[in-house]
Amino acid sequence: MLLFQDDGGGMDPEGVRRCMSLGFSTKKSKTTIGQYGNGFKTSTMRLGADAIVFTRAIRGSNVTLSIGLLSYTFLRRTMKDDIVVPMLDFKIQDGETVPLVYGSQGDWDSSLKIILDWSPFSSKEELLQQFQDVGSHGTKVAVYNLWMNDDGLLELDFEDDDEDILLRDQGSASGGVTKGQKEIVQQHISHRLRFSLRAYTSILYLKKFDNFQIILRGKPVEQICITDELKFKKVVTYKPQVTHDSQVVSVRVDVGFAKEAPILGIFGMNVYHKNRLIMPFWKVFQEGSSRGRSVVGVLEANFIEPAHDKQDFERTPLFLRLEMRLKQIIIDFWKEKCHLIGYQPTDPNLRSQYKATLKDSGGSASHVHHKNSSARRTGGFSSNLLPETYDDVATAGFPNNGFHLQSTGQAQENNMDSEGLDEDLVEIGSSGIFDPNFMEKLSEENLALFSRREELRQRDTQLKQTIEDLEHELEETKRKCGQLAAELKVRKNQQHLHYR
C-alpha cells in the first residue's frame, strides 16, 4: 500500500466529489498547476488498482469528514457499465461524529457497504479511525492492490532503500570509463530521478520550499536547486513573442556546466511551468556530438502550455521557437566557454592560445585546464553571471550558429580520461556533403509551414463561421419575405372585397 498524507485545508463534501469525478476541473490560477482535473485519477490508477480517500475540512463553523473509494477492482469484478464512486460524509455535531446524508439513507447505506466490501477496512469504526492522525484538517490517500510486473514482483521497490521508493530494475546506468566515473554518473540527479521518488521530488519545484515540507518514508526531502550546481554559470534573457498584442514576456535562462564536467557528459534543459518541473534534462540536441556536452540549463516557461500528464509540452509554434532559441543559447555558451572544461576553443584566437599553452605544458590537458582557470580568476575568462538577451522577433531568421556535422553523419568523441580532455569540436568534412546550415534551415522551414498551417486553419474556421452567418441571414430574409408576401396577399384580398 502507498500512503499519501497532508495537513492542508482538506476537502469538504463538494470538493472531494469534484476531486474524484472524472474530468472535472476548476483551473483558474495563473501561478499553479492542477485543481481537480484528471491527474488524481490517472496517477492513482497507474500506481494501483484501488484508492481510498479520507479528508477532513473546516468551513466556517462546519467540520466535515468525507470518504471516497475509486476502485477498479470493484468495477471490474461487478462488471459495472458506469463508473461508480461511493462516497460517505460525516459531520461533527456536539462533539459526536454523525452521518451526513445528502441523498437518501439507502444511498448512504449502499455506499458504506461497497466501501467495506472493497477496501481494507471491515467496519465503519475502522474507517473513522483513519482520521485520528489527520488532525483538525487534512487529507489521506491510500493506494492499494499495487501493480506488478511480468515477473510477478511489485513495480515499485520498497526494499533496496528504506528512505526511498524506487522503480524496480531502472537503476542501471551507462557512461563513464573508470569505476569512479560510473559511480559519479549513477549518483547524479539526472540519472537518479528516472527511478527514485526522493530524487525526483528534490527538483520537482523551482522555488525553495518555504511553507511546506515533503517527508518520504519518515525523512524530509532535501531540495536541490539545479542552478546552484552549475559552474561557469551565465544568465540569458529570452523574450518570446507570445502574440502581437500581448504584454512582453521575459524569461530567465540559467545555463552552465554540470559541476562534474567533463567526466559527467549529461546535458539538457530543465523546464518548469508555474514552479512545477515538466521536462527534466531535456536534450534539445541529439546525443553523440561533443558540442553542448555537460551544458545544463534551467528556466520557467509559463508562456507555453504543458501536456495533460504534465510530463511534456504541447507542440505549438511557441514551443518550437523556444526549442530553437535554447539550441542557440547552448551553442553560444559552448563556443564561449567549452575550453574551461578541457575542450579546444572554437574562437580562433582562443584556440591559438590554447595550443600554445598545450605545447608549453608538454601536452598535458590537465595543466591547460589549470592555466585557463587561473586566467579566469585574473579576469581572462569571467565566471560571473553575464547578462545576455535574445529577442524572439520572428519565427525564422536564425543566425548561423556553427552547428556542424561530419560528412559521415557521425560524431567524434574521445575517451574522457585525464589525458583526453582536449577533444576537438566536430567539424564538417572537406567533401561538403552536408550543408552546415541545413539543420537550421530545415527547422525554420518546418516552423514556417507549421505557422502557415495554423493560419489556414484559423481562416478555414472564420470562413465556416461567415458561411453560417450568411445562411442565418438568408433564412431570416426568406422569413421576412414570406411575411411580406402574406401581408400583400391579405391586402389584395381586402381591396378586391372593397371594390365588389
TrEMBL record:
Q: Which residues does the annotated region (Disordered) include?
A: 361-382
Q: Which residue ranges does the record assign to the Morc S5 domain? A: 195-334
Q: Which residues form a coiled coil?
A: 439-487
- Which terms under GO biological process does the entry name? DNA repair; positive regulation of defense response; regulatory ncRNA-mediated gene silencing
Where in the cell is the protein located? Nucleus
Q: Name one GO molecular function term.
A: endonuclease activity
Pfam families assigned: HATPase_c_3, Morc6_S5
What's any one GO cellular component for it? nucleus
What are the protein's UniProt keywords? Coiled coil, DNA damage, DNA repair, Endonuclease, Hydrolase, Nuclease, Nucleus, RNA-mediated gene silencing
**In which domain of life is the source organism classified?**
Eukaryota
The family note in this entry says: Belongs to the MORC ATPase protein family.
* Quaternary structure and interacting proteins, as annotated: Homodimer.
This protein is called Morc S5 domain-containing protein
Q: What is this organism's lineage?
A: Eukaryota, Viridiplantae, Streptophyta, Embryophyta, Tracheophyta
